[in-house]
Design brief:
It is a multi-pass membrane protein. Its main location: membrane. It is found in: Cell membrane. A hairpin with a 3-residue loop joins β2 and β3. The protein is built from 22 helices and three strands. The C terminus is likely disordered. It is globular and about 120 Å long. Strands 1-2-3 form a three-stranded antiparallel β-sheet. The longest helix has about 60 residues. It is mainly alpha-helical and about 600 residues long. α9 packs antiparallel against α10 and α11 runs antiparallel to α12.
């Protein structure tokens, strides 16, 4: 055999060996990808099954569902630290934080905004903006000053301290909305908390991006440029969300009466809105999705009546799945990262930070001033409720019909619940992870402690605030039955009792019922007023407010306070009736 032939055979063997090696490598990589995907699915299934168990447990033992999911995630994270087998199954929790927000936030934010009453949201929008924009900036400034001087051992710069303030100042809409769904609060107050939380979170992410840019680039902060960027981002996002909703409406009209297609269109458009706003336009993706959902809800005539109920049900189901998974993932991430960066002295600092934030949030100053307006000759009550760390609120109310000009107003009981219900959750962890994992951070700063502090605040707010908010509401008698509800219940029971007595009188004349046990029937059909209680003097006092003639036999006229309550109650019932006719496309005859 010639030398050329030997070289050719040798070259073929080398190529064949390289091909076999390459094939084996590709096969091994494909097998790893398959295992990763299979374990991800298994992790999701186990988490959802755990969510079922936690849900039944929350009904029996009365703890928040999200807290149960979070604690389950913490337990899985502790197993992840000590077991390679569990670590293989929790690989999905180590996804990019930005991808985690892109995966879950469009579902959770849209479901919340799409389920809100558009009329009530627009009326409370001014209050929500005041709480979200000036309140967040004020809170970020105070928290940053505290972090700079009280957490000196971390060696944070001013930018890092203010960035930490922007992360912990914003309430997490995922956690807050999940808590609200488990508690039956007044609808207007629920709209205020939910809307403020969504807008607050969107503004906080924008503020975080501005501060993180200066921290990572090391450039000096131009307050003028930053303010312009903040305003441009916060204004551009709602505009884009509104345009996106109009595009979705045009598509939905074309595919009328097709529930599957309509649901798919809305789902795709929600993700496109979030993705385009964040990656291409550079505006707040959360604010864009909020306006997308509210606008689509306000103009839901583009959705067929046959599909609307199914769409709401599907979105609630997706929201439950996403809510369960995100809190389990947050629990795993916090337990894993705390095991790597936690120090014994951090516990005291975390409790100190939580205490300071809670005291600043809950130390509200309520003042009422009476201002005379010479031109209008009216009495104007200016109520300023300032919650130093996380709430700054101003309500101007004119005493015409007792209705506030700005939103629905806020009582002192609602302000306490508003301050105590400011939970932190998945968004804070994601922002902290994005910041800590960036390689451009200066090594002179102990920036890993940002994640430690944020994780500690999240743990304490979920365990303490979420579990005690019902106790706080009971302590301040937040859910006391109002005068309107007491009188409405009494009037309804009186009407039902009168109908019962008439029916019994008619039945007694019928020969078929001559042997009936009327005493037993009267005893078992008697209705008791659940709101009745207290002294007879108090009941007589309540009757004086009753607007119907049969209850005001003494001839006393209706008082202004009672008239205002009944007027607001009647308007609310009228709006609900109109909303029901609009939703189901029912036009009353006559």
């Amino acid at each position: 055999m010639s030398i050329n032939m030997k070289l050719l055979v040798y070259a073929n063997e080398i190529i064949e060996n390289d091909t076999n090696i390459t094939w084996e490598i590709q096969k091994e990589e494909a097998h790893k990808i398959y295992l990763s995907g299979a374990r991800t699915i298994q992790f999701i299934m186990v988490s959802l099954f755990a969510g079922i168990v936690i849900h039944f447990g929350s009904k029996k033992y009365h703890y928040p569902f999200t807290v149960g999911c979070f604690l389950f995630g913490v337990a899985v994270g502790l197993l992840d630290i000590h077991s390679q087998f569990v670590r293989d199954f929790t690989h999905v929790t180590r996804m990019n934080p930005s991808d985690m927000m892109l995966t879950f936030l469009p579902i959770l934010v849209f479901e919340s905004s799409f389920g809100m009453d558009a009329h009530m949201f627009y009326r409370a929008l001014t209050q929500c903006i005041i709480l979200a924009l000036p309140g967040l900036l004020f809170c970020t400034a105070l928290t940053g000053i505290y972090a700079k001087f009280a957490l000196k051992s971390y060696n944070w710069s001013w930018f890092t301290a203010f960035l930490f303030g922007s992360i912990v100042s914003a309430t997490d809409p995922v956690a807050v909305v999940a808590l609200l769904k488990e508690m039956r609060m007044p609808h207007s107050f629920t709209i205020l908390i939910e809307g403020e939380s969504l807008l607050n979170d969107g503004v906080a992410i924008v503020l975080y991006e501005i501060l993180s840019h200066h921290v990572l680039s090391g450039s000096n902060l131009s307050w003028k440029d930053s303010a312009v960027q903040l305003i441009k981002t916060c204004v551009g996002a709602p505009v884009f969300g509104y345009i996106s909703a109009k595009i979705a409406e045009i598509i939905l009209v074309k595919i009328y009466i097709s529930p599957v297609s309509e649901m798919t269109t809305i789902l795709i458009q929600a993700y496109i809105t979030y993705f385009v706003a964040e990656r291409f336009l550079g505006v707040s993706a959360v604010l864009a999705v909020v306006l997308f959902g509210v606008t689509l809800n306000a103009n839901r005539m583009s959705i067929s009546p046959e599909s609307e109920g199914l769409i709401h049900t599907d979105w609630r189901l997706l929201s439950v799945y996403a809510n369960t998974l995100i809190f389990v993932i947050v629990g795993v991430l916090i337990s894993v990262h705390l095991s790597m960066h936690y120090d014994s002295k951090d516990a005291l600092l975390v409790f100190a930070t939580y205490f300071v934030l809670t005291v600043l949030r809950c130390s509200t100053e309520l003042s009422r001033q009476t201002v005379e307006v010479s031109r209008l000759r009216r009495r104007v009550d200016v109520m300023v409720l300032c919650s130093v760390a996380s709430r700054i609120f101003a309500t101007v109310s004119v005493d015409i019909n007792g209705r506030p000009c700005t939103g629905y107003g806020l009582t002192w009981k609602e302000s306490i619940v508003l301050a105590w219900g400011g939970l932190r959750g998945a968004v804070g962890v994601a922002l902290a992870l994005i910041f800590v994992s960036n390689p451009k951070i200066e090594k002179s700063e102990d920036t890993s402690k940002v994640l430690v502090q944020v994780s500690g605040i999240i743990i304490l707010t979920l365990i303490i605030n979420a579990n005690t908010v019902k106790f706080v509401m009971k302590l301040i008698r937040f859910k006391d039955v109002t005068l309107v509800h007491r009188l409405s219940m009494g009037n309804a029971i009186a009407c039902v009792t009168e109908v019962r007595e008439k029916s019994i009188r008619i039945c007694k004349r019928d020969r078929k019922y001559q042997k009936a046990d009327w005493i037993w029937l009267l005893l078992n059909t008697k209705l008791n007023d659940p709101y009745k209680g207290g002294s007879r003097k108090k009941e007589e006092t309540l009757k004086r407010y009753f607007p119907f003639d049969e209850a005001t036999s003494d001839g006393q006229s209706l008082r202004p306070k009672s008239l205002r309550l009944w007027t607001e109650h009647s308007r609310k019932l009228l709006r609900l009736a109109q909303s029901g006719h609009h939703r189901f496309a029912v036009i009353p005859l006559g």
